Amino acid sequence: MPASRSRHLCSVAAALVLTVAAPATAASAASGASGLREVLFVGNNWDGTADVIKSSGDFAEVGRINVIPDRDQRMAEINADPIKWVYFQAIRNSVGEGHDQFADDMYSTPDGKSVVVSRPSFADVVSIDLATGRINWRFPVAGYRADHMAVSPDGTRVAVSASTANTVHVLDIGTGKQLGSFATGDKPHENVFTRDGKYIWNMSIGDVNTSLDSPGWDWTKGDRHITVVDATTYKQVRVIDMRQRLDAYGLKDFSDAVRPAVFSPDDSKLYFQVSFFNGFLEYDVAADKITRMKTLPKNPATSEDRTTWVNDSRHHGISMNPEGTKLCVAGTMDDYATVVDRSTLQEGPLVPTSKPYWATVSGDGKDCVVSESGADQVTAIDFATGRKVTSVPVGDHPQRVRLGHVQADWTGPSGS
């Protein structure tokens, strides 16, 4: 076992059960404000746009945003810097699958006047004025790639992963000023604020672009763990090494790269996906151990050659209904999404979807909304029945879908 694993053994009392925000928490900060409309922001990673759609019902289009209005300026900077140019090309030809990555994650400000976007290929975070489409502020992240973000429960701070620098920055959402930062494992990915805003959880996923994908080579993927920090001091309070928990459960051949994850409403359980696995695991936070595993069906048409799976994913995207009774899983490489009963872990109908990349919850909590990156649309699935409600077209390669707000009469920037 690499020496770096030893630091994962640092212990904090098992009673440290952290209360984690539900996906809609960030948007709810403005839910009572007048003059605002709740929407879903859909980031179209390959064409650098964001579609804004209704948060429930028919999910109809409200407007569209160009999230790279400064593209010419950014490209001039990249072309003038040989190192930046090399990383830009590397992103395009690895995680980008031959495309540039312009819109990874996004959250609106509490007043519904701006949206903050992480842009992997430009290695930055920008705030875009929703009325004009112009950039309010820009924050270049450490290293050469920006990734997933999280917003604090009060909507005033965003945490963004700088994936090549093994760092998470925490920014003031209004000004873009850095409030703090902290170190992570290799390739920080998902971030989650706790419901009370006191802690941030970060999941590092390691190198997902190497061809050493067989279980015997998993150790070459890097130092991967969950880092929990105090959201005021940004000091580490806990490290969770899933390698040890997977081994204890008898899953020595499983990757320990924690991908999308969701907490139960009572904060006692974490449901998470790992690289290469068609299913998810249940982790008891207080007991600090894996308690259940759910294996979902394989698509016979999906190649068993793991090097053909995008960024080491097999399934990527998981959400939970507000009642905590149903999970929704995006079976990325198996081309389906399905609703799973949390009590029995029995899956419902396998809803055909094309390379579903993310799963979130509608504004009214009734539907699971998945981004179909292979079909350039988002699809809503009824939590109650597990069946498809509707699909709506969006831009090129939709990935992250986040609840947020715009001004009530907003239909797009004035310059669009």
Low-confidence stretches: 1-33
Instruction: Give the mean pLDDT.
Output: 91
* Helix/strand class: mainly beta
Number of strands: 28
**Approximate shape:** globular
Determine Rg (CA atoms, Å): 20 Å
Estimate percent helicity: under 10%
The major sheet is characterized as:
4 strands, antiparallel
> What separation lies between the terminal Cα atoms?
54 Å
DSSP strand content: 35-45%
- How many helical stretches? 4
Quick structural overview:
The protein is mostly beta strands and 416 residues long. The chain has helices at 25-28, 71-80, 82-93, 242-248, and strands spanning 36-44, 49-54, 61-66, 105-108, 114-119, 124-129, 135-140, 146-151, 157-162, 167-172, 178-183, 188-193, 199-204, 226-230, 236-240, 258-263, 269-274, 279-284, 289-295, 318-320, 326-331, 336-341, 351-352, 356-361, 367-372, 377-382, 388-393, 398-407.
